[in-house]
Every structure is written in C-alpha cells, then in structure tokens.
C-alpha cells in the first residue's frame, strides 16, 4: 500500500491499434487541420514523437504499460496474475473511474463500484465468451452455426449489450434444446460498433469537478478495426460488408493484406476517417476536462497500445521487417500538472516508461522493480529498444523512428494528396482531379449499352440520420480488357470518386468511397461512367447500362 501526498488528478486515455503516422504531416508534426484536437493536446504537453510500444498485441502491451515490467504469454491479464499494477498503486488513495476494454487488472475492491456495478452481468458475459472460444475451436465453420468471430474483439463476443435486443427468432439450437446461440445478424455487429461511441461518451460524462483525488482511466478500441465511422461520426457500413475487404484473415498471426492495391487504399481511407472521428471524440473529452477545471491541474496521459500496418502483402499486426515501424510507432503525450506549453522530444521512449514517469510526477516510490525509466529524467546515450510479436519473438526497434514515420506519411500523401478538408476527402490522383466536383453535363458522354453495371445498393441511395451510404460497390459485366478502363462515379450529376475495375470474389467489380459532401439529405442518384486509362482531358466518356 502506497500513501500519496499530492492531490493531482490523473487522466489516462489509452487508444488501441493507432499508427502514429496517420496523424502526421510531411514535417512530422501533428496535422492540425486534419486532427485539431490531437494538435491541441500537443500544444500543452510533452509529445514523445519517437516513442515505441514493446509488444505488438494488446494483452502483453497493456500489461507492460500498467505494470512497468516485461511480459510473456503465460498469464491472463487479470488482477490475480498481476496484482502489482497502476490500479493497485493508486487505488487506496484515489477514487478510480476505470474501464478496461480488454483486460481486468483493476481489482474488484477498487473498481467494483465504478467499473462493474453489474458484476453478475459481466460474470455471465465471461462464461459466454469461454463458450464462443470453445465453439470456434471445435466447429468446422463456426459462422454457419451462428457463433461469433473472435478475431475482431477481445471480449463480449456475442453482444456488447448482453441480453438486450436479442431476437429469439434468430437463435439456432446446436447442442440441446435449452441451449441456444444467437446469430451474428447485422444489428448485432452494429451494436458492437456503436458500443465504442457510447463507452467514450459515458466515460466523458463521469468526469466531475468534485473535490478529492481522482484517477480516470479508459482503454477503448479506437481507431481499431472494424472501420465504420466517417470523420463526422456518421456511419457508412452498418453490416460490415467491407470490414475485411482486401484482407486475408485466414493467415495466422493476425492476417495479411492482399495484392490488390486499390482495396488497400480504400482501407487506408477508412482508417483515416476513423482516426479523424477519434480526434473528434477526444476533443469532447478535452472540453469536459476544461469545463470541470481539471485539465490544467491534471497529469494527463494519452497513448496507444500498438499501431497497425495497411500496405499490400504486409502483415496488419504481426511484426516483421515490413510492418515493424507502423506497429511500433504510437502516440505518447504526457501533460504535466500546470503545463501550458508543449514540447516535442525525439528521445527513444517506450510505453513501459509511462508508469515510472507517473510515479515521478506524483512523488511515489513504487514497491516493485520496473524496466522503464521516468521521462522526466532522461538518461543520456543510446537505448536498446525491442518489440515482441505474438509469439514473443523480439525485434530491434530503430533508435530513431522518424525516417520510418516519414515513409508512412509520404505513402499517405501519395494516396490522398495534401489534406484540405474531411468533407471532400477522397482517393484521387492528379489525372482524375480534372473531373472531380465537376458536373457531368460539362463533358461529352456516349452510351455503351454492351456493358452493364449493377450497384449493390441500387442507383438511388438514401441518407439517414447518422448514416451516409459512402461505399459504392457494384458488379460489372460485358467489359473487355478491364485493366484498360477506369470508372467515374457521379452523385446527383457531379463526379465525386473514381474506381478501377477489379476482381472481388471472382467477380469484376467497382468499389469507391464517396466524400461526405457528395450527399444531400434524403435520396441521392448514383451514376457510373467509363473512360479508358489514363484519365485525360478531352478523352471519351462512356455511360454503361445501369441495371435497376
């Protein structure tokens, strides 16, 4: 038990699967136009731009962060196996408001009344999760039996809101008459996605200005896959139809991206939109902390457990020479009490330095040996850093990751160009720019009835509150030499996106991600046009037959 003399409030926000390069500009600074709230934090905190995680997967990464010691894969991330952690360090002197999305390191006597007021519900959820894991192991095709996928989450596989909204008509008996398993219906997955937004808002609402020592902790699965949010918070894919497009999750070690570059670019666009939405939510948290007069006096820590890679034929989460930089480089900001001016440090920090730094700020002597260092007392000289993969193999992390970060930023800018605004954010190149945001009537168009296109959502799409059908996908038939053609997608008579004709599930298809500004409220008309590669001013534009 540690006695803490200071009354400093502590706020610790831990994101998940967050590659640092996603929020940087070509100067390796926070892109303040695209991510104003992360830039807002950087202006008043110490930003450790060269920071790296020590583990490429959530369990050991968070255990490492919250205990300050090296990890292995031999123990579950619970208080029973890790009694010496940040929660037990602060929990005797501080009131703790915590939500752990993956682990359970906070013991019941500290977090019971704050994190799990419905303990029975979570006990039931645990046993349901055990059942889901078991059934995924023994069934040849778990999905066909209605068993949920367990690779896209860490817990609560059946439903984020246990026992609510389950339609008994969609349950399928597979073991005995009184044992039923719910199907993974679209609304089921939708609830899992919505839970992240609800969780963040609930956490923000718990921040109060009441006196006393407070420790606020949130680990949230953002901007983690699946990517479903536009920068505004509106959703564009309620059923998850494009969650893993371009991605082979059957490959061991977390899956690998495929060879189709266009699909990888679409996933990159989805990631950046979700990072922008994460920035928006984070701004709401900063607003609340300022409104309650907590931010200035608080020790505020923002980090992410690990990054992720989005590049063709590269592992998304497994560490190797190609993916290491995107997985290792993560945001790390530490705002000291009373700090008003930001700094940027390229010291080779690691996430296991967070706990020693916190102890230094609060003037606590931690009663166990840690492997990290306080970032208030930076050691001189070089430092050996490593990152572990899922099998705990160690890979050296470069002493300076800035060159690797710049590679990621340049890759992003090749795909999207220099950021202007989210409303018009789209995949584009210099050639197609001559058509974007232009009326179809400005160009000569010739009918091509021999080619047919059937759009998945039809030619008339409807917006709804909180939803924009920004993904346009359709099947192309009758086309010859598909690699010689590009498509232009128009919404309400204005060109808004492009797409090559690509093979998806052995069909020739188009797939485009429309910008938010393409839509008006209510009904929107979508048309598809063809043009031979490359895009050139004055080239013929053809209109294929759009099947209703």
Notes on the structure:
- This protein is of the alpha+beta class.
- The protein has 3 domains: 10-117 and 190-412, Alkaline Phosphatase, subunit A, CATH 3.40.720; 120-185, no CATH class; 432-546, Immunoglobulin-like.
- The protein is 24% helix and 21% strand.
- The chain is built from 10 helices and 22 strands.
- It has helices at 36-42, 58-67, 86-90, 108-115, 119-138, 186-205, 261-291, 324-328, 354-362, 402-416; strands spanning 10-16, 46-48, 95-99, 171-173, 180-182, 214-223, 247-248, 256-257, 299-304, 332-335, 343-345, 385-388, 394-397, 445-455, 460-462, 471-477, 485-491, 494-500, 502-504, 507-513, 523-532, 541-546.
- It has a 7-stranded mixed beta sheet, sandwiched between helices. A 5-stranded mixed beta sheet has the order 19-20-16-14-22.
- A hairpin with a 5-residue loop joins strand 12 and strand 13.
- Helix 1 (36-42) packs across helix 7 (261-291).
- The protein is elongated and about 80 Å long.
- Residues 113-120 and 160-186 have low confidence and may be disordered.
């Amino acid at each position: 038990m540690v006695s803490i003399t200071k009354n400093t409030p502590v706020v610790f926000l831990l994101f998940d699967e967050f590659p640092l390069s996603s929020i940087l500009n070509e100067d390796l600074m926070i892109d303040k136009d695209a991510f104003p709230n992360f830039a807002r934090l950087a202006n008043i905190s110490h930003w450790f731009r060269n920071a790296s995680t020590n583990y490429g997967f959530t369990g050991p990464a968070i255990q490492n962060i919250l205990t300050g010691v090296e990890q292995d894969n031999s123990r579950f991330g619970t208080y029973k196996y890790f009694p010496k952690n940040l929660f037990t360090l602060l929990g005797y002197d501080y009131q703790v408001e915590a939500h752990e999305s993956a682990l359970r390191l906070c013991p019941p006597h500290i977090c019971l009344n704050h994190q799990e007021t419905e303990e029975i519900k979570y006990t039931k959820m645990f046993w349901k999760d055990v059942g889901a894991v078991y059934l995924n192991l023994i069934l040849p095709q778990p999905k066909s039996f209605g068993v949920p996928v367990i690779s896209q989450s860490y817990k609560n596989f059946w439903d984020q809101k246990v026992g609510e909204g389950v339609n008994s008509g969609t349950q399928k008996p597979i073991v005995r008459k009184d044992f039923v398993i719910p199907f993974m219906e679209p609304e089921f997955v939708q609830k899992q996605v919505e839970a992240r937004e609800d969780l963040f808002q609930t956490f923000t609402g718990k921040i109060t200005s009441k006196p006393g020592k407070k420790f606020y902790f949130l680990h949230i699965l953002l901007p983690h896959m699946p990517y479903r949010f536009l920068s505004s918070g509106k959703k564009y894919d309620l059923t998850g139809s494009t969650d893993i497009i371009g991605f082979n999750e059957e490959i061991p070690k977390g899956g690998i991206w495929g060879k189709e570059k266009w699909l990888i670019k679409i996933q990159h666009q989805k990631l950046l939109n979700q990072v922008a939405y994460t920035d928006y939510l984070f701004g709401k948290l900063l607003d609340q902390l300022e409104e309650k007069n907590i931010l200035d006096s608080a020790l505020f820590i923002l980090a992410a457990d690990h990054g992720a890679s989005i590049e063709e034929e590269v592992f998304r989460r497994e560490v190797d020479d190609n993916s290491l930089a995107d997985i290792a480089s993560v945001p790390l900001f530490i705002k000291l009490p009373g700090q008003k001016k930001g700094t940027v440090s390229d010291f080779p920090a690691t996430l296991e330095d967070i706990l020693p730094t916190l102890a230094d700020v609060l003037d606590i002597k931690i009663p166990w040996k840690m492997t990290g260092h306080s970032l208030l007392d930076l050691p001189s000289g070089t430092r050996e850093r490593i990152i572990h993969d899922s099998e705990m193999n160690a890979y050296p992390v470069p002493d300076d990751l800035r060159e690797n970060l710049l590679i990621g930023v340049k890759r992003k800018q090749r795909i999207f160009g220099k950021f202007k605004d989210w409303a018009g954010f789209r995949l584009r190149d210099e050639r197609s720019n001559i058509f974007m945001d232009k009326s179809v009537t400005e160009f000569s168009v010739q009918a091509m009835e021999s080619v047919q296109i059937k759009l998945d959502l039809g030619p008339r799409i409807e917006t709804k509150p909180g939803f924009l059908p920004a993904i346009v996908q359709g099947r192309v038939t009758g086309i010859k030499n598909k690699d010689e053609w590009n498509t232009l997608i128009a919404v309400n008579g204005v060109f808004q996106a492009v797409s090559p004709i690509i093979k998806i599930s052995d069909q020739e298809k188009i797939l485009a991600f429309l910008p938010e500004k393409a839509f008006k409220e209510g009904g929107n008309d979508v048309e598809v046009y063809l043009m031979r590669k490359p895009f050139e001013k004055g080239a013929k534009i053809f209109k294929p037959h759009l099947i209703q």
